[in-house]
Amino acid sequence: RACPRTFTALLTDTVHPACGEFGLFAAKEMPHGAWVIDYVGAVSLGENEDRSSDYVCDFGERSELALDARHVGNEGRFVNDYRNTGRRANVEFRLRRDRRGELRQGIFVAAKEG
């Protein structure tokens, strides 16, 4: 089921390191701290993560787990790494509990500079 808060689109900015790939975008303005979407994927011990995957996100109290959205995931897999873009991060990853109390890797709106 698609997330109504987000959409994916092809990145066409030729100076963006991910130009030609898809990115995740907010469907509407969201306040700082708002939950955007969960990053969903296959969970493994960090030591067993697929180092060739571009979709791995480490998590856990000591980053001892890896979440790989390469083959299993949702729209969250299209969130792009802000590094090497000259821009600041506009989202951040934080652990959260869902309604059933299960641990999730959430993507949240980051604070604006200033």
From TrEMBL:
<dbReference type="InterPro" id="IPR046341">
    <property type="entry name" value="SET_dom_sf"/>
</dbReference>
<protein>
    <recommendedName>
        <fullName>SET domain-containing protein</fullName>
    </recommendedName>
</protein>
<feature type="domain" description="SET">
    <location>
        <begin position="22"/>
        <end position="96"/>
    </location>
</feature>
<dbReference type="InterPro" id="IPR001214">
    <property type="entry name" value="SET_dom"/>
</dbReference>
<dbReference type="Pfam" id="PF00856">
    <property type="entry name" value="SET"/>
</dbReference>
